Every structure is written in structure tokens, then in C-alpha cells.
Amino acid sequence: MALRDRVRDVVDGRRFQRFVITVIVVNAVTLGCETSPALVGSYGELFDVLDSAALAVFVVELAARLYAHGPRFFRDPWNCFDFAVVGVALLPAAGPLSVVRALRILRALRLVAMVPSMRRVVTALVKSIPGLLSLSGLLVLMLYVGSVVAINLFRAGGDPRFGDLGATVLTLFQITTGDGWSDVMRDLMATQPWAWVFFLVYLLVGTFTMLNLFIAVVCSAMESEAAPSRAGADDRLLAEVRALREEVRALHSTPPNPAESRSLDAVGDRR
Fold first, then answer.
1. Is residue 51 within 8 Å of residue 33, measured between CB atoms?
2. pLDDT tens-digit map of 94-126
3. Number of domains in the chain
4. Cα 133 from Cα 120, distance rounded (Å)
5. Would you list the DSSP string of 109-137?
6. Domain boundary at 82, 114, 146, which?
């Protein structure tokens, strides 16, 4: 076996993947601990050592994968993501690039690329972006139409939340998220008792319908992402069943061996 094949078997093996995942988790915890001045004062040197060791492991792991897979390494978007994250971590965190030090936490996102279940979820979210963009446009249109209606209905009451288009859009967006909408409605009902009608219609259309459509689009994308894996498992099961049927047919169609037939006849005669 060539050296590249051996390296590929190692970097694609479960043990090596679990080791890298462990390093990612430990490094993420370390970076979180560095946000505490008390912990940095007591264990600052240990945190630096762990951070440097984790970066060294990431560089060696990335180099091994590059060597094992060659140019095919960059065909996988997740490999490109890992390459970019590790490349950012290698930039000098001094001078004008001091902000790069804060980006070290991006290494924790490598956990998404390493865990297949997380990777499927993110892939489904990316596939749902076109549908989410269409729904976002519909939501913006609903906010605009609702804001114009709300201004005409409630601006005469003197409420600053409905004083102009910008303030009204912000208020309706707050209502769409379900944050304090009942307080806004009750304040308006003190002077306009029928204001609840507008809020009832807007909540039914904006919150209960639009937000549920967002969830439906994401769930649909996740189902379509999981379908190929289920289809692959079903195909493998059908292939095994067909192979078993062929073996049974072969056994039934095989002519009996003459020697075995004579031995069976001899046993029958003795009996």
C-alpha cells in the first residue's frame, strides 16, 4: 500500500476523527475560559500552551488531509471551510491584525464540518436559502403594507411608535417577533377601542402564518437532505434481498450429484 493511501486511511478513520473532535472541543473551552480575567490570571500560561498545541494539531491534520486527498481536497466545501479557518488562525495577531485573535473561536465551527449530523443540518439550511429569501421578501412586503395601514389608523392618537414609517416598521417588526405586542395594543385601545382588530389580523398573518412558513421551508429542506441517505439504505437492503434470492434459485436449480444420489440409495436399501 502506498504511503498516501496509508495516510488517507488514518485521517479518514474514526479514531483520528474523534481525536480531532476532542481537540476542537478542548480548544473551544479554553478560548471561552480566556474571557475570564480571573482564570487568565491564574492559568494564562496553560491556556496559551493549550491554544498553541491545538493550532499545531489542526495544521498537521490539515496538511495530512491535503497530502492524502491531493487536489480533490478542495472539491469539498467543508474542506475549504477548514482550510480558511486554520489559515485565519495562522495570521499574526499583532498590530493592525490584532482583531484576528478574536476570530480564533471560529475553530469551534470546525465541529460542524467534523460531525456528519451537524453537517447535514447546515447543508439543509443552505439549500433552503432560496425559499427563505422569497419568504423574507414577502415578510418585508407585509411589514410595509401593514405599516402604511397602521400609520393611517393610529397616527392621530399621538403615539410616537406610529409617528412615521420607520418607527411603525420597527414597531410592527417587534410585534411580529411577539415581543410586547399586548402592551402596544392595550396602549392604543385606551383611545381607540377597536385597535385590537388590526392586531388580531396582523398577528394571524404575520406571526402564525409567515413564521410557520419559515419553519416549513427549513423542515422541507432537511427532509430532502435526509432522503438520499434513506434511499441508499433501502437500495442496499434490496440488493441484499436480490442476492439471497439468486443464491436460493441457484441451489434449487443445481442438479444432484450422482455420487451423493447413489450413497443415499444405498442407505435406503440397508434400511
1. no
2. 555 556 666 777 778 888 878 887 888 888 888
3. 2
4. 20
5. GHHHHHSHHHHHHHHHHHHTHHHHHHHHH
6. 114
pTM above 0.70, yes or no: no
Which DSSP state fits 179?
S
What residues make up the domain containing 150? 116-271
Q: Which residues of 92-121 are buried (b: 16+ CB within 10 A; e: fewer)?
A: eeeeeeeeeeeebeebbebebbeeeeeeeb
pLDDT tens per residue across span 145-158: 999 999 998 888 78
Cβ-count burial 45-55 (b if 16+ within 10 Å, e if not): eebeebbeebb
- The two most distant CA atoms of the chain are separated, in Å, by 115
Nearest-CA neighbor of 17 among 135, 91, 145, 110? Answer: 110
Domain limit, last residue, from 114, 148, 183:
114
* Sequence letter at residue 162: F
247 and 266 share one domain: yes
What does DSSP assign to residue 100? Answer: G
Cell of 202: 396582523
* Same domain? 80 vs 22: yes
> Nearest to residue 169, comparing CAs of 194, 145, 204, 199?
145
Say if residue 231 is in the same domain as residue 103.
no
**Nine cell digits for residue 17:** 476523527
